[in-house]
Specification:
Blueprint: H1 17-28, H2 44-54, E1 66-71, H3 74-95, H4 98-104, H5 115-118, E2 121-128, E3 130-132, E4 138-140, H6 144-161, E5 165-169, H7 175-181, E6 187-196, H8 214-217
Antiparallel strand pairs: 1-2, 2-6, 3-4, 5-6
Helix pairs in contact: 2-6
Protein name: Nitroreductase NfnB
GO molecular function, one term: oxidoreductase activity
InterPro entries: Nitroreductase (IPR029479), Nitroreductase-like (IPR000415), Nitroreductase/BluB (IPR050627)
Length: 221
Amino acid sequence: MPYDTEPLPYRARPADPAAAAREVFDRMASRRTVRDFSDRAVPEEAIRHAVATAGRAPSGANQQPWHFVAIRDRAVKARIRAAAEAEERAFYDGAAGDDWLQALAPIGTDADKPHLEQASWLIVVFAQRFGVNADGERIKHYYVPESVGIACGFLIATLHMAGLDCLTHTPAPMGFLREICGRPAHEKPVMILAVGYAEEGAAVPKAPGRKKAMDEILSVV
């Protein structure tokens, strides 16, 4: 496509950007990964808006190399849980290695993944290794992992700002997700997001709530 331009879209800009950034931090600081979900339903429109926001993320050469599959069907969620737990049992039975299991110990994870059925929705994120045009020809995609990672960040932040809870889940390998979701071979599943409302009285592990100090994550030059 030829290079073309358009006016920058209007957006209201806060008079005090530091205060606005602090407000976002205050809201996002309460975000925690939840493993105990209630049976409270989440409307499809909320999921649609969250995915639409993820689709606004920047991407290499604007190729937008992602696809999201939102699942609320109980039978499909049960299939995903069964397949994921099979991979997880192999992981925890030795495939992970002692160092990895030791790193996971403070988080309290194991091979049982009931959240994959309990959560109102599962959103499976796929990375497109390449695109396909109307003639069936390949379109090269650039910076796919980085682009999809940014989109996932947009998605998780939007879900939290919408008052929802979620859990990122990355069973390995994840090829079963492509089959269950009916996606083409050039799309690589990278994440399952369990999305819903936390069960009343839900508890979360302490360790992930302890974040690095600012001087550990920021250098100002």
